Amino acid sequence: MKKEIPLIIAFLLGTWMILENFLTGIPWVSTTKEAITNGGIVIMAFTYVLGIYSIVSVNVARIKRGQDVVPKLALLAALALMVGLGFWRGIAEGSPFNWLYLNLYVPLQATMFSLLAFYIASAAFRAFRARSLEATLLLGCATLVMIGRIPVGEKIWSGLPGISDWIMNFPNLAGKRAIMIGASLGAISTGLRVILGLERSYLGGE
Amino acid sequence: MNALLRGLQRFLALDRRWIFLLMALCILTPLIVPFGLPFSTDPAVENLYQAIEDLDEGSVVLVSCDYDPGSKPELQPFTEALFRHIFRRKLKVVVSCLWAGAPPLVNQAIEQALQAEEVKPLGLREKIDYVNLGYKDGRQLAMLGMGENIHATFPQSYDGTPVSQISLMQSLRKLGDSDLFVNVSGGSPGTKEWVETAQGRFGLKMVAACTAVMAPDNIPYYEAGQLAGLAGGMKGSADYEQLVGVPGLATRGMDAQSFGHLLIIAFIALGNVAYFMTRGRRN
Q: Is A9 exposed, middle or buried (0-12, 13-18, 19+ CB in 10 A)?
């Protein structure tokens, strides 16, 4: 029964989610749809509890082993502080939680993301080589798109933005559509396998 | 010749800290001393702008801000210009977020727009002219829920007011009730999920702004007509600022991006020249 019950739930809910697309204007269908959707949102919210448990258990274990004690303690303290402040004074504007979020978390995350500019420059210098025809095409397209999307490119030659747009709107579009169609067919096939109980890896152990 | 080859080999082994320093200079200098290089606007952004211009006064725009501080430099200028544009056009705006980090950024953008000189005299009131519903978990399930009943998905606004008490929300009970849907997206869930889950299903007129890395993924939706307009990356935000007539951080950032891109291109070119000239020697 440990496996059968989840398989039955997956089959019933999966089938329902497909069928409800075609059942419009029926009141009980709308009510059931709303209840199932809200139930799903509640289940997803519980994953935060699981996430917090996971962060705490993994980091406590590392601290006990004496690995990276200071950063791990800082992480757990920050977690406790933000959760505590959120429960204590709420998260609305003017609350300590909101102040810390805007003045600590926002600059820290923006800084982390900004580092990409530096690493991309360094990585492009060391790894972006025209070693083959494909690599040369990629390099050429990347250079044209990069230069066509900036004001300096337009200043150098007014035709550059047009070339950049052409690359984005034709070769890129064709490639993206092919990938999207392939990925969608794969998702449909995997979805059907899950609904029919042929794909059971989400149950674990297989 | 040997000296040149040795020089090129040394160049290939350049300490990356020099690259970091040059990049920092290329980004910081134009931000401190703006050059104000002119640029033309993208037709996809012009269509986004036009979609808002075409709305009648009092129309309700639903904006889903799905990004966090990591995408702030690219998307916050767009969000600020968007609210300014919406307020100036005397439209109503309801904001929801599927990313936990977004609601405080939304409040910042709204405050910024409300302080604008052309918006201040309008005397806009929270919950009558605009409301921030805050964050809801659930990704595509939240989108489906909003398609059926926004009041059930967001029972209260970000500041805890029940939606039943918000007059603006009485005319917006489901996604399809909005006159225009705008998605500001920093990743997943974002534009892709909104188009796939909600746009066709609930018949939304939709436009989107996304980060530069997401733009190639979203172009097919724009070309297919599922998106009526699209602003990609900082360039898209800068284009939109130009169209709204409020040049801000994104417009200033274009100079920095120009020099940053040029430096990367220069390093790629020089790296390849050095690589091929020294290849035989290394072999």
A: exposed
Can you tell me the ipTM of this complex? 0.87
Residues of B in contact with A114 (CB under 8 A): 73
Mean pLDDT of chain A: 91
Residue ranges, chain B, pLDDT below 70: 280-283
147-206 of B, contacting A, C-beta below 8 A: 148-149, 152-153, 158-160, 201
The predicted-structure confidence for A104-113, as pLDDT tens digits, reads as follows: 999 999 888 8
Q: What does the alpha-carbon distance between residue B254 and residue B233 come to, in Å, rounded to a whole number?
A: 11
What ranges do the domains of chain B cover?
2-33+256-282, 43-246
Interface test with B, best of A113, A158, A170 (most B CBs within 10 A): A113
Q: How many whole angstroms separate alpha carbon A155 and alpha carbon A148?
A: 10
* Tens of pLDDT, residues A29-83: 888 888 888 888 899 889 989 999 999 999 999 999 998 999 999 999 999 999 9
Helix (H, G, I), strand (E, B) or coil at B260: helix
How many whole angstroms separate alpha carbon B20 and alpha carbon A47? 39
Classify domain B43-246 at the CATH topology level.
Answer: Rossmann fold (3.40.50)
Q: What is the pLDDT of residue A204?
A: 79
Query: In this structure, are residues B222 and B7 in contact, taking their beta carbons and an 8 Å threshold?
Result: no
* List of chain B residues whose C-beta atoms are within 8 Å of the C-beta of residue A150: 39, 235, 254, 257-258, 261-262
**Binning pLDDT at 50, 70 and 90, where does residue A205 land?**
low
Query: Are the C-beta atoms of residues B216 and A168 closer than 8 Å to each other?
Result: yes
Is residue B185 within a helix (H) or strand (E), and if so which, with residue range? strand B180-185
Tokens of B179: 């006159």
User: What does pTM read for this prediction?
Assistant: 0.91
Instruction: Kindly provide the b/e burial profile for residues B89-99, where b requires at least 16 CB atoms within 10 angstroms of the residue's own CB.
Output: bebbbbbbbbb
- What's residue B5's pLDDT? 84
Distance (Å) from the alpha carbon of A37 to chain B's nearest alpha carbon? 6
Residues 198-237 of B with CB under 8 A from A: 201, 212, 215-217, 219-220, 223, 233, 235
Instruction: Answer yes or no: do B138 and A118 touch at CB < 8 A.
Output: no
Nearest CA distance, B12 vs chain A (angstrom):
8
